[in-house]
Specification:
Layout lengths: L2 H27 L2 H26 L15 H29 L7 H29 L2 H31 L7 H16 L1 H14 L6 H14 L5 E11 L2 E10 L8 H14 L7 E8 L7
Parallel strand pairs: 2-3
Antiparallel strand pairs: 1-2
Helix pairs in contact: 1-2, 1-4, 2-3, 3-6, 3-7, 4-5, 5-6, 8-9
Length: 300
């Protein structure tokens, strides 16, 4: 079993545990904030199971159905994960607003603090393990998973602090505000994490649609390619690129000058070899195709 699969299986197991923990404590404490956390974990578990399958799929070679491989499944899965998180968040906000309009809800703050501390420790532990695994494997799937766990950990810390504050309020003249703490907390948590699923969806869609990478990445790749072909007489070098999941694809279209007369195909392969060496150290390791022509119309 490879490191990526091990990391994803760990995430799936912990997500199922945290989902069960959140739903049980949500019922016991009458807290929608904790219930929301449990449902987020349940979504995470379902997606982790699918992610394990996708992580194997994207490593398979092209076949009769997918001539260019399965790379697009990776950003597609991440986009779906982000959309599911947005859906759960939308339902949670609707329920919280409804509770605020009807006098809030009772809360067992003592049990809520116990849950939040357990969730904080678990999320930060798994997030740290996943971050190290992402660095070792270079897997976008594990990288997104690590971010999700670390964000969950930070939010669990905030939830713990708020529930401690609720315990203190119960013993003060402001005890009548305690029923409003949970719905307000739900709204605050959703607004705080909203940027994460939105970013995941946006990045996933950009890769699915074949957007070009950031301008600084494009400039780096073009400089490497142009440097590699600088010795040969060229009229133009057109470099196109896109990133899909863990794959980075570069298409070089080299328009050679009329005086360029290779004596054999091996001369062109030598240029391709120089381009490949120029891309050494670039991450993720790119797939580079280079075509040569004397007529610029073939590059349009």
């Amino acid at each position: 079993m490879d490191q990526e699969t091990k990391a994803l299986r760990l995430s799936a197991a912990m997500a199922l545990f945290m989902a069960a923990l959140g739903i049980v404590f949500g019922i016991l404490t009458q807290s929608d904030a904790i219930m929301l956390d449990g449902f987020f974990s349940l979504v995470g578990f379902a997606m982790a199971v699918v992610t394990i399958r996708v992580s194997r799929l994207v490593q398979q070679p092209p076949d009769k159905r997918f001539h260019f491989g399965y790379a697009q499944f990776e950003p597609f899965l991440n986009a779906v994960k982000g959309l599911l998180m947005l859906g759960v968040a939308g339902f949670a906000i609707a329920a919280a607003v409804n509770a605020l309009l009807h006098g809030g809800r009772d809360l067992n703050a003592g049990l809520a603090v116990v849950y939040a501390v357990i969730a904080l420790a678990g999320c930060l532990l798994v997030g740290g393990v996943q971050r190290r695994a992402a660095r070792r494997t270079g897997s976008p799937l594990v990288e997104v998973d690590a971010k999700n766990w670390l964000v969950d950990g930070v939010l669990s810390g905030v939830v713990a602090a708020v529930f401690v504050a609720a315990l203190l309020l119960e013993r003060s003249q402001y005890a009548h505000w305690v029923p409003y703490i949970d719905p307000v907390l739900v709204i605050a948590v959703v607004l705080a994490i909203l940027v994460v699923p939105i970013r995941i969806v946006r990045e996933g869609l950009r890769e699915i649609l074949g957007f070009a990478p950031p301008s600084e990445v494009q400039a780096d790749v073009r400089a490497r390619i142009e440097g590699a072909v600088g010795e040969m007489p060229t009229a133009m070098v057109r470099v196109n690129m896109m990133k899909i999941g863990r794959f980075f694809y570069v298409l070089n279209q080299v328009v050679v000058s009329p005086e360029f007369r290779p004596s054999r195909v091996g001369d062109l392969d030598a240029v391709r070899e120089r381009i490949a060496r120029a891309m050494d150290g670039f991450e993720p390791t790119p797939i580079v195709d280079t075509v040569f022509t004397e007529d610029e119309k073939w590059t349009e």
